[in-house]
């Protein structure tokens, strides 16, 4: 025994490990009991300023310290103590006040005190209205929960559904959007929510809105009632119906900004400017040119406006990197744009309200609201993207003259202090002519502009607050022109708009008025924009049309230059033309036209809509005669496509039993005839094979140099006399032609006996038969 172990008692190696595990388990139990006791003794009315003053587990405290979270915000100091005690919470605080930590810390502590493992299933569910906000919550959860052993997952739309289904059953914490979560609850068999402990709704007022109402109701039905529920938002919902749907139990309402002078951060400078609708794009472009070293967010009311403004301003090159973000983009593109804007120092992003809630972009200098928000709550969420965490920020609201009074009144009611400013002269940049030129040169851009205008007009029409948004007070024609689009806009859903009525009016009825018409003034821009196919969103189609037009013009050089090969010439019946019109060379337009040659029946054109049919090959297919479809069988014979016979036609041919017997008899006869043909063909092939074999054998022995005679088909099966009759006689063969001697290897093509080499002829005395003879002959040739 070694000296250092002398006198010691040897113990089994397993006992110390067992003792260590039991001691660790006992220590964990003691820590949980102490933590549970500290939470019960926590005074919710006391002022807590640091996370170290809260009864938190050492694991959570280490995660907060590693993430550099030390001091509590107002909403955190009031909401976290209540949440640790298991109360239901309605939390409302200003944007950028730290609401995310106010519910993530209680979630981790609730599961830790319950000793939650992966075998216990789902313990906490956090629902967010947008994908970007869900990703941001998940990243914060990963930071502060880095030392916990809980499994967490991000479940949002756009991700791999099968991959999410495989991992969903093992997750303890889920951060999700309503639509995808409901899909998993209905389709994923291994997903169980019966043990859920905590439910969190971030931006609860938006989730409880009409857009997510049905999804949230369906999710609540799957969840157990004995859970803890927490709702957080900058503008919290207080509807009794919403709270009843969530099954809240004595909720605590925590609001930290109701007693404040403003619902927005004090470090935020808020202004508004009144600009006519036709000058909005000029004002925006001038503002961006004046702040190229800033970080700017511009809010629009629709995704199509975002796309059009981004494409046009990108061509105008304002001198700052431009980005765009809206809900119609794919998830990968949205994440890429979000990361680029977060990492940039100076850039401008055009976005919809998908960015307005919860997202934390660092160091945003300006928030520009080009389109008026639908209500004061939306305004608060939009401007909350800047001046976060008590940092400075600026916001500008651009209002139409018809929106000023109603919107300012609603902002004052929400305790939003905003000041009116004026734009300096010379700061606006006139870009209408440039937009008009771009829309004419690029049909795709013109198409985007039309869709953007329609979406903006529709958003105004659908607004609930008609006191602020009265579509009749907007200068939509001026806005349409400022976007570089030609013509007068037609809004189908607007009251008093007779577009549909005029469109369906027959062509002969629009000239019945007796009032003299003023001559229409047409400019070159009108003629330019009246060209066909300008609104087709396809460069390939435009190129094809251009190539076809060039080919037609080359074939018909004498045709009128103003005629369009796609347009249908006006057809006027001769009997409707007056003699005076014919003498003057002028034709009057008739109410109806008849076009023949397209189908069996003549096509009557009595309106502009039916006249456009002649310009579409696809539409004309309905009036053309339909051919008969043919298919080819294995023998190359064409026949019509077999179709099932109707029951009535089948019964007219007779009883089913008689038809069956007739069909069997016909098929039997056909098979018998086919069998005979197959037998004769097999015999013929066998005979030809034998003849080829005999000819090959005869050629090998060199007896006969001519073709082997073939059998004469006399109709009898293998008639031996026919073979003898087909053989030639020996005398006849000698008379016809002499027998040819096979050429030897030393003879050339001349046919002379001997070998010609370099002008000399050497005759062989004896035909070589043995190897010695061949050697002697070769020696003579060499000499």
TrEMBL record:
* GO CC terms of this entry: small-subunit processome
Question: What are the Basic residues biased-composition ranges?
Answer: 1-14, 682-693
What is this enzyme's catalytic activity, as reactions?
ATP + H2O = ADP + phosphate + H(+)
Q: Name one GO molecular function term.
A: RNA binding
A Gene Ontology biological process in which this protein takes part is: rRNA processing
List every stretch annotated Disordered. 1-29, 487-523, 664-696, 727-764
Positions with biased composition (Basic and acidic residues): 664-681, 736-763
List its EC numbers.
Answer: 3.6.4.13
Q: Which family does it belong to?
A: Belongs to the DEAD box helicase family.
Domain text from the record? The Q motif is unique to and characteristic of the DEAD box family of RNA helicases and controls ATP binding and hydrolysis.
State the protein's name: ATP-dependent RNA helicase
């Amino acid at each position: 025994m070694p000296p250092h172990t002398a006198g010691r008692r040897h113990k089994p190696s397993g006992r110390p490990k067992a003792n260590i595990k039991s001691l660790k388990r006992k220590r964990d139990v003691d820590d949980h009991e102490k933590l549970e006791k500290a939470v019960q003794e926590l005074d919710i009315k006391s002022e807590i300023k640091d996370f170290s003053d809260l009864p938190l587990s050492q694991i959570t405290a280490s995660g907060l310290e590693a993430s550099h979270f030390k001091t509590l915000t107002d909403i955190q100091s009031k909401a976290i103590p209540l949440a640790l005690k298991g109360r239901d919470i309605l939390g409302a605080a200003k944007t950028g006040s730290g609401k995310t930590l106010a519910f993530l810390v209680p979630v981790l502590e609730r599961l830790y005190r319950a000793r939650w493992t992966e075998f216990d299933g789902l313990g906490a569910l956090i629902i967010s209205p947008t994908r970007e906000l869900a990703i941001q919550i998940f990243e914060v959860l990963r930071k502060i929960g880095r030392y916990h052993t809980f499994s967490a997952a991000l479940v949002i739309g756009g991700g791999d559904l099968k991959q999410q289904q495989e991992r969903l059953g093992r997750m303890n914490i889920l951060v999700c959007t309503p639509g995808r979560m409901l899909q998993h609850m209905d389709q994923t068999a291994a997903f169980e929510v019966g043990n859920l402990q905590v439910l969190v709704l971030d931006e609860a007022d938006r989730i409880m809105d009409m857009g997510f109402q049905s999804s949230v109701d369906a999710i609540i039905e799957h969840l157990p009632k004995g859970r803890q529920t927490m709702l957080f938002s900058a503008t919290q919902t207080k509807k009794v119906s919403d709270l009843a749907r969530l099954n809240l139990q004595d909720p605590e309402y925590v609001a930290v900004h109701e007693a404040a002078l403003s619902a927005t951060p004090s470090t935020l400078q808020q202004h508004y400017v009144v600009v006519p609708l036709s000058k909005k794009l000029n004002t925006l472009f001038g503002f961006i040119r004046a702040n190229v070293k800033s970080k700017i967010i511009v809010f629009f009311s629709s995704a199509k406006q975002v796309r059009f403004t981004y494409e046009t301003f990108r061509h105008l090159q304002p001198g700052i990197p431009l980005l765009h973000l809206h809900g119609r983009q794919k998830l990968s593109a949205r994440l890429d744009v979000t990361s680029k804007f977060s990492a940039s120092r100076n850039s401008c992003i055009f976005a919809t309200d998908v960015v307005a809630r919860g997202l934390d972009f660092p160091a945003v200098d300006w928030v520009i609201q080009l389109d008026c928000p639908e209500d004061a709550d939306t305004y608060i969420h939009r401007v909350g993207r800047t001046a976060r965490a008590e940092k400075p920020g600026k916001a500008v609201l651009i209002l139409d003259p018809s929106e000023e009074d109603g919107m300012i009144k609603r902002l004052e009611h929400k305790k939003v202090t905003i000041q009116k400013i004026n734009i300096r002269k010379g700061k606006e940049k006139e870009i209408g002519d440039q937009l008009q030129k771009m829309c004419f040169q690029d049909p795709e851009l013109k198409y985007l502009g039309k869709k953007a205008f329609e979406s903006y007009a529709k958003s105004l029409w659908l607004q609930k607050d008609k006191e602020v948004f009265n579509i009749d007070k907007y200068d939509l024609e001026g806005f349409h022109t400022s976007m570089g689009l030609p013509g007068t806009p037609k809004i189908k859903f607007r009251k008093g708009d007779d577009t549909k009525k005029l469109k369906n009016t027959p062509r002969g009825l629009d000239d019945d008025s007796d009032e003299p018409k003023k001559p229409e003034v047409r400019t070159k821009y009108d003629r330019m924009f009246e060209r066909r196919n300008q609104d087709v969103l396809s460069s390939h189609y435009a190129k094809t049309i251009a190539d076809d037009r060039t080919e037609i013009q080359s074939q018909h050089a004498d045709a009128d230059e103003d005629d369009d090969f796609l347009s249908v010439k006006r057809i006027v019946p001769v009997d409707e033309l007056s003699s005076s019109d014919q003498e003057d060379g002028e034709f009057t337009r008739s109410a109806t036209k008849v076009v023949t040659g397209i189908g069996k029946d003549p096509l009557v054109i009595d309106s502009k809509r039916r006249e456009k049919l002649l310009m579409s090959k696809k539409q004309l297919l309905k009036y053309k005669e339909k051919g008969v479809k043919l298919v080819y069988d294995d023998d190359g014979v064409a026949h019509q496509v077999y179709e099932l016979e109707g029951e009535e036609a089948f019964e007219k041919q007779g009883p089913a039993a008689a038809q069956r017997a007739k069909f069997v008899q016909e098929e039997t006869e056909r098979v018998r005839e086919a069998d005979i043909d197959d037998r004769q063909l097999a015999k013929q092939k066998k005979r030809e094979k034998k003849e080829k074999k005999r000819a090959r054998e005869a050629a090998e022995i060199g007896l006969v140099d001519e073709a082997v005679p073939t059998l004469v088909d006399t109709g009898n099966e293998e008639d031996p006399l026919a073979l003898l009759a087909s053989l030639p006689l020996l005398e006849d063969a000698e008379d016809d032609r002499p027998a040819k001697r096979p050429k030897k290897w030393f003879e050339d093509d001349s046919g002379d006996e001997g070998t010609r080499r370099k002008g000399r002829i050497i005759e062989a005395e004896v035909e070589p038969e043995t190897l010695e003879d061949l050697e002697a002959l070769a020696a003579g040739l060499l000499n």
